[in-house]
Write a structure and sequence with these properties.
heterodimer, A: five-stranded mixed sheet, four-stranded antiparallel sheet, B: mainly beta
Chain lengths: ~110, ~110
């Protein structure tokens, strides 16, 4: 399983765009990049997954450059409720254990 | 059910006692995962089931921890001779694949 590296924490203000970058230099050909969000006292929640280029859903966008050695989760116009820990995971989409790192703790202030 | 259900939500036990934590996965999900999470840390993998069998139990810390999923649905995580270091939130998740797992709210275990 490819190891991932993310910033430990980020601060932002309401209404700003937040970009969280994850490094995964040893990503394998069959690996996808998946992001989870975790609020206090809750289990992680899947938010987005991608293989290459750009993926967008109602929650976030995921940008993956051609070499796939990193990825950026983009949260547009964050609100206080986006304060959470965000985890980047890398692996193929077959059944396997999901390995979480320490994640990025995002704090959104008024 | 609509989501992954874990019971109990909180469990306080005395050091040395035996505890069981239950997980009801989303109906039809063949994969089931157990994690534990300490304050300020990411979820730590314990064990993963594919159907009734443990596909990967490499995360179980020692032989005091055991998990079963006898009918390929509900799973029970069993901890013998609990220690204070076992105190954590135990998370269960289920999945139908593609790295999209659905987590329960967790069981907060406190060993006193």
């Amino acid at each position: 399983l490819a190891k991932t590296t993310q910033p430990i924490s980020m601060d932002s203000y309401e209404g700003q765009e937040v970009n969280i970058t994850c490094s995964h230099n040893n990503i394998a050909t069959n690996d996808y990049i998946t992001w989870y969000q975790q609020f206090p006292s809750q289990g992680p929640r899947f938010i987005i997954q991608g293989y290459k280029t750009k993926v967008t859903n109602e929650v976030a966008s995921l940008f993956i450059p051609a070499d796939r050695k990193s990825s950026t989760l983009s949260l547009p116009r964050v609100s206080l409720s986006d304060t959470a820990v965000y985890y980047c995971l890398v692996g193929d989409t077959g059944f396997q254990k999901l390995v979480f790192g320490t994640g990025t703790r995002l704090l959104v202030s008024p | 059910g609509a989501g992954v259900s874990q019971t109990p939500s909180n469990k306080v036990t005395e050091k040395g006692k035996y505890v069981e934590l239950r997980c009801d996965p989303i109906s039809g999900h063949t994969a089931l995962y157990w994690y534990r999470q300490s304050l300020g840390q990411g979820p730590e993998f314990l064990i993963y089931f594919q159907g009734t069998g443990a596909a990967d139990d490499s995360g179980l810390p020692n032989d005091r921890f055991f998990a079963v999923r006898p009918e390929g649905s509900v799973s029970t995580l069993k901890i013998q001779r609990t220690e204070r270091g076992d105190s954590a939130v135990y998370l269960c998740a289920s999945s139908s694949g593609r790295m999209e797992a659905f987590f329960g709210q967790g069981t907060r275990l406190t060993v006193v």
